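Example 9 (inverse folding). The structure is encoded as follows.
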């Protein structure tokens, strides 16, 4: 039982996605809490404009509590107190490095197995898949932590390319041919919602 939302840009640009999140919830939002993982934004963390906007949107959806959590510096077991885990975007190498170093990868996997809703935005969604090879293929230079193990959390076998534009199509096809895989292209107003491993696009 895994409930995932993979998105390029979160709820700000997709009202349908907000409604879909509410239907995934086990209770009404005012009885539930959300953790926003800010780690991927190595420089800005909780001051990242997308994290701040996400917090505002979620609070406006009437969630009881919305908190920033940075697993680079905080105990990942804090995540066990929350009903929704929202992984903000940024540098996927940096995020995956700290997910594994802190043990947050195992905590998130356990929570997902229990049905906790996991939301991955942009790079935060890429790390939930089988690997972040696609980031390495397109942008090796942002691997500032020199991450060698590119295996993701494997909560889904879907590989996403967020912020898709037609200009990237030829290179994505080369990646698909090289790694013999399929890539799900997501524009800034597209998302994938997975409930009990069934996937729908929004």
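The amino acid assigned to each position is listed next.
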């Amino acid at each position: 039982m895994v409930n995932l939302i993979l998105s390029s840009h979160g709820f700000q640009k997709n009202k349908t996605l907000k409604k879909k999140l509410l239907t995934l919830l086990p209770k009404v939002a005012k009885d539930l809490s959300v953790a926003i993982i800010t780690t991927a934004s190595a420089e800005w963390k909780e001051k990242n404009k997308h994290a701040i906007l996400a917090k505002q949107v979620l609070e406006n959806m009437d969630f009881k509590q919305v908190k920033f959590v940075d697993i680079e510096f905080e105990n990942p077991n804090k995540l066990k107190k929350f009903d929704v885990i929202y992984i903000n975007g940024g540098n996927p190498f940096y995020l995956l490095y700290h997910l594994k170093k802190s043990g947050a990868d195992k905590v998130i996997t356990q929570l997902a197995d229990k049905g906790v809703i996991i939301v991955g935005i942009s790079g935060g969604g890429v790390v939930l898949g089988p690997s972040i090879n696609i980031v390495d293929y397109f942008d090796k230079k942002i691997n500032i932590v020199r991450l060698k193990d590119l295996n993701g959390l494997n909560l889904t076998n879907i590989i996403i390319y967020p912020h898709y534009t037609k200009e990237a199509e030829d290179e994505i096809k080369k990646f698909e041919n090289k790694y013999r895989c399929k890539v799900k292209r997501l524009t800034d107003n597209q998302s994938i919602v997975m409930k009990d491993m069934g996937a729908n696009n929004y």
